[in-house]
Amino acid sequence: MKINLPNQITIARLFLSIVFFVLLAQFSIQTEPLRVWLLDVCAAIFLIAALTDILDGYLARKHNQVTAFGRIIDPFVDKVLVCGAFTFFAGSGFAMADGRQASDVAVWMVVLILGRELLVTGIRGFSEARGENYAANVYGKMKMAFQSTTAVWILVTVAHPEGFFFGWTGFVVGRTIMVWATVIVTTLSMLSYLNSARHLLAETSRPVKTP
């Protein structure tokens, strides 16, 4: 099977995600010498992966190269990248000596993000199996934008708690705001998808008639 350019970019994003996870797994907030360069590299990789997500979708639509494979692999890579990043943010690598997370990401937030993705993936799979298109809506796109921006913000502010350029403490305070904004937008996105799938949920809840 010949893989077109948009799908090649998507597959490259998957490999970038793997590199991102391997590097992030080496990070510990307690290991000062690795702190800056490792998170800076991870931030750059994540940013490239997020921006190429826009590029592959644009090229697929522009050149009429939207494929079934692309419709499956593209959101899959998005979920792997974002869910994996936030899982690490709530993990031991970002745990400080006082028990707080340097990333401001709590475990329950990761559960919410993962739950949303599993729910929407299940609904999308059921819908498209019936031949109904279940494309991302504005809340889904906003959710991805918030999650990606927040992920990069976390990496940069944890690496540079004094402020990236001018020692601006608001830069770090803004991390907490961005994390909570991401949680809110993720929740709204989940509710929006549930609302759009009301007819599917109503149908699946009907008892099966037996002969």
Largest sheet: none
> Unreliable runs, pLDDT <50, ≥5 residues?
none
CATH class: Mainly Alpha
The CATH architecture can be named as Up-down Bundle
Share of helix among residues?
over 70%
Total tally of structural domains: 1
Average pLDDT score: 81
Q: H/E order of the elements? A: HHHHHHH
Note the gap between the termini.
Answer: 44 Å
- The helix count comes to 7
Could you tell me the CATH topology label: Four Helix Bundle (Hemerythrin (Met), subunit A)
Strand content: under 5%
Specify Rg, calculated over alpha carbons. 19 Å
Q: What is the 3D form?
A: globular
The total beta strand count reads 0
Query: How would you classify the helix and strand content by structural class?
Result: mainly alpha
Short description:
The chain has 211 residues and is an all-alpha fold. Helix content is 73%, strand content 0%. The radius of gyration is 19 Å and the shape is globular.
